[in-house]
DNA sequence: AGACTGGTGTTACCGCAAGTAACTAGCATG
DNA sequence: CATGCTAGTTACTTGCGGTAACACCAGTCT
């Protein structure tokens, strides 16, 4: 039967595709994001053109590779966001989930945070985009969750998106710094960040003799 | 006199250096951060090896180029942080200053946000560092300012650094998203972010029928 | 004067990476 | 048998970062 064979073919090529992705992942996690296509092909036991047939170009391969981890990370963040307890508990659980993820697999983190490799370089002009896909997706997702669950008045969706991206960025920058220097425990870091989100910045008094922040 | 001539030499080479930097800047702002050394050399009317004599390698050139803009941006942020008004006014002014900067010169922004080009690739292993120098510096600076001006208890410096990086990250991610989509005015964006920092997330009630955030 | 130094600049090259063209071999289907 | 589809190859082009070797042109030291 034609469709049956087609399906076999498709699943076969897709299996091959994931095999190649797994080889690529091994290399990227060993050599970093600057791994060469040759090295990846060698790891997979084949040569370059096959990679190009499957993924178009290097950014295509990297996008496919990033998607898996991004999906996985987002899933764990979602479940953390649904953990039991009050709102503060949930926020702290989510921060913990994120920080734990980047702590246990820093190479994956580094790979995912590499900004997109200028997939469309049309005509050489460049808009002012930076675009780390993982950050964008996390921000959008969190924004949606906030909009679903909180009532922020008439422009809830707008505010929620801003907050989503803002909170994600807070988590990202603090996590990146923390991962590099490790000047405090994860627990404390989470607590301080939650304090920040809980408005302690506004409540805290000026230091004596300061003109105030 | 020896020193006098030495000084002349030094100023001369330094002038040349800044000329080269200006040429590099023109090219980078035209072609994006992936501009080639050849292109930069051509723009400066010379050939590659001179660039390498002045800056060591490409990342050296880029670091020199980034430093100027980073210093300038940090200076304007500092003054915004010292603007008149109460604390919220100052925070909003700083957010405005940052967003205005990335809005008016998006190519500079894109260039500055490019993570460091793996300056030391020792032995091929990679720690989990990402390191966008501008973000780090902004975070550290803001942390210092916070530590100077606020009394956050016994571990003020620790909390202040966390908050510095966190707030900077919030500003960064929200700004990056906003710059790409422009779904609202800068004024509103600033207000929503300040609301977030002022603890509105904790104050806001759950939406009816939601399990709460 | 002549050798030395330190800057400017060049041409010509190496190594390596992304990406492609052209071709081959298996294997099912009309 | 011919057709087409896939997985695979070798060998190439193009372009980049980076370097070696050399030339020129000040002033400086002896």
TrEMBL record, chains A, B:
Residues 14-73 form the HTH tetR-type domain. The keyword Methyltransferase does not apply. Residues 36-55 bind DNA. It comes from the Bacteria. GO terms for molecular function: DNA-binding transcription factor activity; transcription cis-regulatory region binding. Pfam families: TetR_C_32, TetR_N. InterPro entries: DNA-bd_HTH_TetR-type_CS, Homeodomain-like_sf, HTH-type_TetR-like_transc_reg, HTH_TetR, Tet_transcr_reg_TetR-rel_C_sf, TetR_C_32. This is Transcriptional regulator, TetR family.
């Amino acid at each position: 039967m034609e469709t049956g064979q087609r399906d076999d073919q498709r699943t076969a090529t897709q299996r091959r595709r994931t095999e190649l992705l797994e080889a690529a992942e091994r290399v990227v996690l060993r050599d970093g994001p600057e791994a060469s296509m040759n090295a990846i092909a060698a790891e997979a036991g084949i040569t370059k053109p096959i990679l190009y047939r499957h993924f178009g170009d290097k950014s295509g391969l990297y996008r496919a590779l990033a998607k898996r981890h991004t999906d996985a990370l987002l899933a764990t963040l979602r479940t953390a966001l649904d953990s039991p307890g009050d709102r503060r508990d949930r926020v702290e659980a989510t921060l913990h989930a994120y920080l734990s993820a980047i702590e246990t697999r820093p190479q994956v983190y580094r790979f995912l945070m590499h900004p997109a490799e200028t997939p469309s370089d049309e005509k050489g002009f460049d808009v002012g985009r930076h675009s780390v896909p993982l950050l964008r997706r996390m921000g959008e997702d969190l924004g949606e969750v906030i909009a679903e669950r909180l009532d922020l008045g008439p422009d809830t969706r707008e505010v929620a998106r801003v907050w989503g991206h803002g909170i994600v960025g807070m988590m990202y920058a603090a996590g990146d710094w923390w991962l590099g220097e490790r000047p405090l425990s994860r627990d404390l870091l989470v607590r301080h960040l939650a304090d920040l989100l809980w408005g302690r910045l506004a409540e805290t008094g000026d230091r004596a003799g300061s003109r105030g922040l």
